[in-house]
Amino acid sequence: MKLRVYLDTSVIGGCLDEEFRDISRRLMRKFERGEMIAVISDLTALELKDSPLGVQKILDEIPEESIEYVEFTKEAAHLAQKYIFEGVLEKGKLVDAEHIAIATISRIDVLVSWNFRHIVNLPKIRGYNSVNLKYGYPLLEIRSPLEVVSYED
Question: Domain locations in the chain?
Fold first, then answer.
C-alpha cells in the first residue's frame, strides 16, 4: 500500500518558498514518481484558487493516478467544530481545524504541513487526537514534510 499523504496549502506553496522549497519539492517528486498518493481536499483546492499562478500549477506535475481527492463533508464540519469546542484551536483558526477533520475522517496515513503554530505542534497534535478518540475517530499522524521524505531522495 502506498502512503496516503494529505497536503495542506502550506506544503504546496512551500515549493516556491525559499525556506521550504527543497523539502517540499522532494515530497512532490515522490508523488510524481508514484511512490506516495497526494490527498487533496476540496478545501485545499479552494485555497489554491487565491494563490499565485505558480503555486496553482504545482499539482499539475503530479499524475492523476497519484492524486486522491477528498471532500469536506458535514461530518468533517462537525468534527472541526469539536476541535474548537474542546479548546484545541480558537474560532479564528477554523480552516486549520477543517483540514485536520477532513484528514481524520478520510483516514489518511499522514497529514503534512508547514504550519507549526496550529497544526504541526505537539500540544495541538495531542489535542486533535484526544478529540478524535473522545468522539470515536482514529489517531491522526501529523508531520512536517521533512519527517516524511527520506534523506536519500
Answer: 3-147
